[in-house]
């Protein structure tokens, strides 16, 4: 079944559009009415250590971009969980549009309760692109979908990390993208809940600017030892994507 046929057979709401994921002919349903994915999700999908087989889970999956991108890197069974019904529905339709129903399963539900259904320590790897900002007055200015994507309304950072440690097996990897301003909180909470940070990489918009994203990977019950990868620079002096970003978006996605 071709993508064009799938795209025609999957219904779209009036506000929705189909965007190209720029790899392996994947397409995704998006809408300006909800929070669309951005570069942080793409970078996390490439950064995360993913086993060739087994079970992989994406928390706060949104419209399912990370699970679909991960299908290009592994034969593992991939699941995503999303609290918002609208986004979970978009994710399921995107999975169907790409013919990935046998590879990707989208759950609608609360990540804080998933262990009561799935069990403890059942996943080999977990990815998460959580809401970045603690609750404050600004979230009231956004619509519900955007507010929940940006602010810790449906779950806090601590609750995300608690969910990770319940769901990942001993030695399994948890990979997260977040804001550098929260790095101390992330490391502190990870260690508190038996997730040992093993790999950190900062993402800078330009070489002379401070980082605006951080990628961090931890191992459940791992030994203390962390490595810092070279910084990832997004734009060069000509305001074009640097070569590594070009490779992530347009080049070999198998690595």
TrEMBL record:
Annotated ranges, domain Methyltransferase small: 41-148
Lineage top rank: taxon: Bacteria
GO BP terms in the entry: methylation
SUPFAM superfamilies: S-adenosyl-L-methionine-dependent methyltransferases
Gene3D superfamilies the record matches: Vaccinia Virus protein VP39
Keywords, alphabetical: Methyltransferase, Transferase
Pfam families: MTS
MF (Gene Ontology): methyltransferase activity
InterPro entries linked: SAM-dependent_MTases_sf, Small_mtfrase_dom, tRNA_Adenine-N(6)_MTase
Enzyme Commission number(s) from the entry: 2.1.1.223
Protein's name according to its UniProt entry: tRNA1(Val) (Adenine(37)-N6)-methyltransferase
Organism: Paenibacillus auburnensis
Organism lineage string: Bacteria, Bacillati, Bacillota, Bacilli, Bacillales
């Amino acid at each position: 079944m071709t993508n064009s046929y799938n795209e025609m057979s999957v219904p779209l709401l009036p506000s929705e559009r189909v965007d190209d994921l720029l790899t392996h002919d994947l397409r995704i349903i998006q809408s300006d009415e909800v929070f669309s994915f951005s570069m942080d999700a793409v970078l996390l999908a490439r950064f995360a250590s993913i086993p060739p087989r087994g079970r992989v889970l994406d928390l706060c999956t949104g419209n399912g971009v990370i699970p679909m991108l991960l299908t290009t890197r592994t034969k593992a069974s991939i699941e995503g969980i999303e609290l918002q019904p609208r986004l979970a529905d978009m994710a399921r339709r995107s999975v169907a549009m790409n013919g990935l129903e046998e590879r990707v399963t989208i759950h609608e539900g609360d990540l804080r309760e998933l262990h009561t259904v799935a069990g403890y320590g059942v996943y080999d790897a977990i990815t998460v692109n959580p809401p970045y900002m603690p609750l404050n007055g600004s979230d009231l200015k956004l619509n519900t979908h955007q507010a929940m994507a940006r602010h810790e309304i449906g779950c806090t950072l601590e609750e995300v990390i608690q969910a990770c440690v319940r769901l990942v097996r001993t030695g399994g990897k948890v990979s997260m993208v977040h804001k550098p301003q929260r790095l101390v909180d992330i490391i502190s909470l990870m260690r508190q809940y038996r997730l040992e940070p093993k790999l950190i990489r900062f993402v800078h918009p330009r070489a002379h600017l401070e980082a605006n994203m951080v990628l961090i990977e931890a191992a459940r019950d791992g030994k203390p030892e962390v490595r810092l990868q070279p910084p990832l620079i997004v734009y060069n002096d000509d305001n074009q994507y640097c070569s590594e970003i070009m490779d992530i978006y347009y080049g070999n996605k198998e690595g």
